[in-house]
Design goal:
This protein has 117 residues and is mainly beta. Helix content is 0%, strand content 49%. It contains no helices and 8 strands. Strand 2 (27-35) and strand 3 (38-45) form a beta hairpin. It comes from Marinomonas spartinae.
Length: 117
């Protein structure tokens, strides 16, 4: 759904279509709302998920349930647990997600996260 303005709306995620994205290991399930310059996703990573690529995109990520390890290409790692968030602008880090027991995330990204670097 493309829109330049976003009217007030509630989202019942049970009614948002779910797409499957295979990782290097495991599977990611995305439920996506797309607006002009804004993407909002409910994302579930399966047990033993490891992303199949290094991501350069900016995100605001909120952990709803479970735990995910964020690996940066420079070798650093951080763990996101229920109730925690991270934020990064486009092109400021190469990162990927890894889970042992699975995780549920709310991920928001869009034009407002473009890097000025």
């Amino acid at each position: 759904m493309e829109n330049s303005n976003i009217p007030f709306q509630t989202i019942d995620w049970k009614n948002v279509p779910r797409t499957e994205h295979k990782g290097e290991t495991g599977i990611a399930y995305w439920q996506t709302l797309q607006f002009d310059g804004l993407r909002v996703r409910y994302v579930e990573y399966s047990k033993n998920y490891k992303a199949d690529h290094w991501c350069e995109k900016g995100h605001i990520v909120y952990c709803l349930e479970g735990e995910v390890v964020n690996e940066l290409q420079d070798g650093s790692r951080s763990t996101l647990r229920k109730g925690m968030s991270y934020i990064v602008s486009d092109d400021l880090s190469s990162h990927r997600s890894v889970t042992e027991n699975g995780v549920h995330l709310l991920i928001i990204d869009g034009d407002f996260l473009k890097s000025n670097a």
